[in-house]
Amino acid sequence: MASKWTAQDGRTYPVDVRQHEDRLNSGTGTGLGAWLAHRAKPYTPPWIVTGAVGVAGAGASQMWADSAPAGVGLTLASVALTAAAWWAGKATGPQRRLHSAITVAAGSSWFTSAALAGPLTGPLPDLYLMGGATVALSWNIRQLMRTADGETSGESSSDKSLLEKVGLARTRLKDVKVEPNRVTVPYELPAGELTHEDAAKAIPRIASALDVPTTAIRHQEDPESARKGAFVIVPEDQLKTPTVWPGPFAPGQSVAVPLRVGVYDDGSDLVLPLLDAIHILIMGMTGSGKTEGALDVLLELFSRKDVVVWLADAAKAGQDFQPLLPAVDWAALDTPSAGAMVAAVQAVIPARTAWLRDHGYRSWEPAAAERQSDPAHSCAASGACGCPGMPYLVAWMEEAAKLLRDLGDDTFTGIAQEARSAGVSLVISMQRASGYQLSTDTRASLPAAMCFGVRGDDATFALPDEVLSAGANPAAWANKRKGYVYLVSAGVDEDLYANPARTFWTGPAGQYERMAGWVVDTFAGIRAEIDPVTGAAAARVAGDRFTNRRTLAGTPAAAPEPKSASSESASFAEVQESARHVAALVDPEDADADASADLPPVGVNVGIPQGKPSTEEARELLDELVSMLASVGPGTVAVRDVKPYLEKLGRDRSWVSKELKRLATEGRLAPTAEEGTYRLVPTLAGV
C-alpha cells in the first residue's frame, strides 16, 4: 500500500500489489523433477551464497596467504560489513536485524581465516560445512515460518511505515484483491488496540498518503468480526463524464422491478428498489443535480404499468417537470393545491388499506394492480369479485421546504408513518432536511435517502452515521460535481451505501424535452389510471382540486392521447395557459382575491359569537374550526391548532382535548401515531 503498481493492461493503482502466481507450467521441464525444482527455488539463495563464500575464500587464499597486511585489511572489512548489516537492519524487525548481523559476521570471519590460512587448514573445512549449512538452513526456516504464517512475501517496511503514519500500527494486511478500477485491501486490527472506528478515521490520512481523493477510499467492516474489515480503493473516477439516460430499464413492467437511475463509480448500475425503499428523502444543495436525479426516477416511473404519480411543486410551479406533466395523474402547482394533495394522501391511506385488507393483501403487491380474478384475493363471499385493481401511488413533494413552511414541519409525519402497507410511497425533495424544516419524526420515517452534494455537515440529515464513517462525504462535492449521489435504501447492498454514484444526464437543452415526450407518448397506453377507491377518497377531501386536476395542470381532463412526432412534448405555451384555466374555475365572488396573499385567520369566517358561548355553541364553533382547518392545513388537527381561538371558545386546552377525543370516539376524527393529533376524515373534512 506504499507505492504505485501498474497492471498489464496499463492501469495504475495507488498500491503495491504483489501477485504470486503458480508458474509450475512456465518452466522448461515437466514431471516430478520440474515440480521439485519449482518448489525448491525460493529456498536456494542462502545455499548459493554459502557456496559463493567457499569459492571466494579458496580464491582469496591464493592471493593473500601468510600476508600480514591482508590480514589486517580483511579483519577490518569483516568488522565493517557486520556493522553495516546491523545499521541497514534498523528499519526491519529486531529478529531480522540480529539474524542478518550474525550471518554476515560468521561468513566474513570464515572468509578472512580461509584467505589467510587456507580453506582446508585445521577446523576450517568442518566449520564451513557445518556452519554454512546451519546458517543457510536458518534462513530457510525463517522463510518457511513466514509463509506458513500467511505472509506471501513478508510485509514490506514501507507498508509498515505507512500504517504507522496513518495511525494503524501493528495492523496486518491480508491478500489484496485486484479488479478493474477497484482494489480491495483486507486488514486485521491488533487485538485490543484498535477498532473499526479507528480504521474509518484513518481514511483521510490514507488518501493523503496514496494521493487520491478521500471519496476514492471506502471502509467496509466485517459484520462477524470487530477486528477484520477491508479498505476499498477506486483509483480512477469513472463518473467524471456523465452518462446520458439510456432509456427505460424495465419498460412496461411493474414498479416492483427496481428503477435504474444512474451508475456507481465502478460502472455498475445504480438502482432504486422503490417497494423496499417505501419513502425517500432526496436532498442536495442548489446546483448539485437533485433535479436531474428526480427526472431519472420519474422517467422510470412513467414507463411502468402499475404506478400513479401525484406531484406537488408549489415552489417552482412545475417549472422543471413541464414536459412530464401529461403523464402525472395530479399536478399541484400552488400552495392551496399542494395542501389539498397532502390532505388527500392522508385520506386515501385508510381507504387503500381497507381495500387491500378486504382483498387478502397484507401489503401492496403487483397482483393488487390487476383486476381481481383470483378467488384468493376477493372481497366477495364466494368466487372472484372482479374488482378493478389498485395501482401503486407515489406522492412526490418537490422543493418541499416551502410546503413545510406553509403547512407545518410535521405535515408529512402521519403519511410517512401510516402509508407503508397502503401501497403509497412518499418522496420528499428539498435542499436541507434540517430539524427546523422537517420534523425529526418525519425524517425518522423516511428509510431511504438520495444525498447529492451538500454543505458542511448537512449530510447528517440524510445519511446514517455508519455510512459517513465508512467514507461517504457529499460535502466534498458540494455543487461542483452535478449528479453525484449516495443512495441508502433497503434492498441495496450495504457495502454500496458509501460508494459514490452519478445519476443519468438527460442531455443539453432540447434533448430532455424530446426524451420526456417520447416516454409520455410511448407508454400512454399502458400507464395506470387512478383506481376508484383512491379517486373517491381524494375527491371527498380535495373536491374540485382533484376532480378537475387535469384541467388545472393544463392537460386534458380525459386520458391523454399519443402525440404526433411534430409535438413530442407539451410546450411551455400550453402550460402557461394553466393560469387562465385556474381563473375559469374560481367562484365569481373570489375573482378579485389575491391568491398569493396570506389566508385570513380562521375565526374571521366562522362567525364567532360574542361573549362566552354555551357548551353547545362551543361545540358547534369547534366543529366549524376543525372543518376550516381541514381546508387550509395539512389534514390533521391538534389542541395546539385551536390554541389561538381558546378565548373565543371560552374554554381551556383540557376541554378542547376532551372534545377532540369525543369526536374521535364518534368516528368523526381518526387518531394518528402522534399523541393528541387526529386526522380529519372525509365526512368532516370536505373542502
UniProtKB/TrEMBL annotation:
Q: Give me the ranges of the annotated region Disordered.
A: 553-573, 592-612
| Compositionally biased residues, Low complexity | 556-573
Is the ATP-binding keyword given for this protein?
Answer: yes
Ranges for domain FtsK? 267-461
Binding residues for ATP: G284, M285, T286, G287, S288, G289, K290, T291
Gene3D superfamilies in UniProt: P-loop containing nucleotide triphosphate hydrolases
Question: Does the record carry Transcription as a key word?
Answer: no
Q: Which UniProt keywords apply?
A: ATP-binding, Nucleotide-binding
Q: What is this protein called?
A: Sporulation protein SsgA
